[in-house]
Amino acid sequence: MCVRSTLALCLVAGMAAAAHAQQDATLPSAPEPRIPSHAAPGHAALMFDFLPPWQQEGEGKQSGGESLGGDDSVVTMFPHPEGERWWLSGQANFILQGRLPFHSLYQGPNSFRNSAEYKLSMVGTLYGAVRPTNSVRYNTDLIFDMEAAEGRGLSEALGLAGFTNLDVVRNPNLGKVPYIARYEIHQVLGLTSETTEQNPNFFALAKEVPARRIEFRIGKLTLPDFFDINDAGSDSHLQFMNWTVDNNGAWDYAADTRGYTVGGMAEYDDKIWSLRYGIFGMPIVANGIDMDWAFSRAHGQNGEFELRQSLLKKRKGTTRILFFANRAHMGTYREANDYAIANHTRPDITAFEHFGALKYGFGYNTLQEITENLRFFGRFGWNEGQHESYAYTEVDQTVLAGADYAGKQWGRSQDKVGLAIVSNAIKRDHQEYLKLGGLGFLLGDGNLNYGRETIVESYYTWHFWRGLFYSVDVQHIDNPGYNRDRGPAWVGSARAHVDF
């Protein structure tokens, strides 16, 4: 046991040292390929049927099978005390990615490079929460998380709409100094004395909650903690790694470069359905780290309806319908294209930005359990595509289908294998902008022979011992950056994840 645990921790420490070694003072402090001339990356309220990974009673509590280090049901390095009014835990996620050389007729400043390359990223998080009172019907949680990130993405996280490592959304080369990831006030208002159990976690400490309730959250958070959750495709620590597999690529959700924002949300939960809505801050510039605090002119509104109802008897199923509407200092591709054509120059969308510009869209998200171990999931997303991609990635439409399978049948209940295919697209004006040589905050080959960017990803996650997991992952990218003149590209990954 001691030899195994020492070996495992040495492997993790080695990856951390490699991530630290990648920091280079000569490299840019952030991947901001185009900057305006004027200017200087989980669901606590759901308690029925499908829950996010940190709330699932089945996750981490199934018996059966022995890991190399002992009981396969133990999924943290140290036990968490039960029934306490405080929470303290942590995680570290290391991803080593490598790319093989691939065919490319040309490449520009924002291209996914066609040479061989490897990069290592690391994200570590310390979760803290306290519950001031014992009230069930009117419960309050105070949440505070710290985070640190090191390492880089392949090609400085440029050149792909569906980038291969979700951790670099929160780690865009901004340095290794720890930062505040979340601070939230979570308030529950019960509408009935009837209660239901919940598994305490770092977003909600109570062991039971009212069956019908309203929940409020206000503070700094990341929207994918509460919107667009999918149990089989939302966790880059143990599942898929691609941006547009773990999140809806067409959902340009309000966020700074690291993926966080400030704002508030309200949620109504009933026995088989939920309704949530929130309003959040937008960055000053596309992919920017600084937020525009004038909510009257810049904000992102998000709403979601969730129905927990299965298509198959005695199985679990969930459907979610999402909408968003962002107002920010955004430009339009058509204005930039028309000016560039008339003046025989390259388009620059930042020259045509307007305060209060509106970008909107919707998403569909579904998950269906087929057997005890097999689940299918899918997403569809669309946005209007006329205004610039601003906060998440350069996708105007996306279609995703995938599945995962748990290893219980071969005696490893915490192991999982997954497969997903996602196809992303952009609208005609966006295509023309890139063809004329324009640069977005992620894309820009200098030219474009348009084709849908289609990605196939597969992974296997191995529960090694207690809270230590290892994964291997392979991604095939057809038409990287929507360009038929480049690719296909292959990316392989190795991941080490530890939960404390």
Fold blueprint:
Elements: H1 2-21, E1 66-67, E2 70-71, E3 86-99, E4 117-130, E5 140-151, E6 179-190, E7 195-197, E8 208-210, E9 213-221, H2 243-246, E10 261-269, E11 273-280, E12 282-283, E13 291-292, E14 299-307, E15 317-331, H3 333-343, E16 353-369, E17 374-383, E18 397-407, E19 412-425, H4 428-435, E20 453-465, E21 468-478, E22 489-499
Antiparallel strand pairs: 1-2, 3-4, 3-22, 4-5, 5-6, 6-9, 7-8, 9-10, 10-11, 11-14, 12-13, 14-15, 15-16, 16-17, 17-18, 18-19, 19-20, 20-21, 21-22
Detailed description of the structure:
There is one protein chain. The chain is mainly beta and 500 residues long. It has one domain (2-499): Porin (Beta Barrel). It is 9% helix and 41% strand. The chain contains 4 helices and 22 strands. The chain has helices spanning 2-21, 243-246, 333-343, 428-435, and strands spanning 66-67, 70-71, 86-99, 117-130, 140-151, 179-190, 195-197, 208-210, 213-221, 261-269, 273-280, 282-283, 291-292, 299-307, 317-331, 353-369, 374-383, 397-407, 412-425, 453-465, 468-478, 489-499. The strands form 4 sheets. A 16-stranded antiparallel barrel has the order 3-4-5-6-9-10-11-14-15-16-17-18-19-20-21-22. A two-stranded antiparallel sheet has the order 1-2. Helix 3 packs parallel to helix 4 (428-435). The radius of gyration is 22 Å and the shape is globular.
Features of the shown structure:
mainly beta, Porin, globular, two-stranded antiparallel ribbon, 500 residues
Q: Can I get a quick summary?
A:
The chain is mainly β and 500 residues long. The protein is built from four helices and 22 strands.
